[in-house]
Amino acid sequence: MPVPDVAVTVAVPFALPGATKVVVAWPPIERIASDLRRLRRQRTSIALRSPVWFTAVEKAYDERLRLACERLIIDEHLDELAGVDRDIERVRLEGSLEAAGLQLRGYEAASS
């Protein structure tokens, strides 16, 4: 069950008395990796039901790839590419994320 990203309010010690700052808490990297594994499985199963499903799953997968790359400081260029070039960029990013320690493969047989 997906847990939404949360915003927390914290007191800023160097600000005026009573001032607060809203900080967005990123999901843990383990959650991002789990989402990527799940979406990767879905790209080869339920996403093939219709073009709408495929587009939705691929968009969610790309968003999680971007988030993982941002968290691990890996350059990504998904927005700049289309078609086969974008597919190649996904493969490159998956390899870079795995080289950084994220486990993206090996769970294909697991249920969603």
Biggest sheet architecture: 2 strands, antiparallel
Rg over alpha carbons? 17 Å
Helix % is 40-55%
**Class computed from helices, strands and strand pairing:** mainly alpha
Strand order of the largest sheet: 1-2
The count of DSSP E runs of length 2 or more, i.e. the number of strands, is: 2
User: What order do the SSEs take from the amino end to the carboxyl end, as H and E?
Assistant: EEHHH
Mean pLDDT: 82
- Categorize the overall geometry: globular
Approximately how much beta-strand content do the residues carry? 5-15%
The end-to-end span amounts to 10 Å
- Show unreliable segments: 6-11
Helical element count?
3
Features:
2 strands; globular; two-stranded antiparallel ribbon; 112 residues; mainly alpha
Describe this structure in words.
- This protein has 112 residues and is mainly alpha-helical.
- It is built from three helices and two strands; from the N terminus they run ββααα.
- The chain has a domain at 28-99.
- Helix content is 47%, strand content 11%.
- A two-stranded antiparallel sheet has the order 1-2.
- The chain starts with 5 loop residues before the first strand and ends in a 13-residue tail after the last helix.
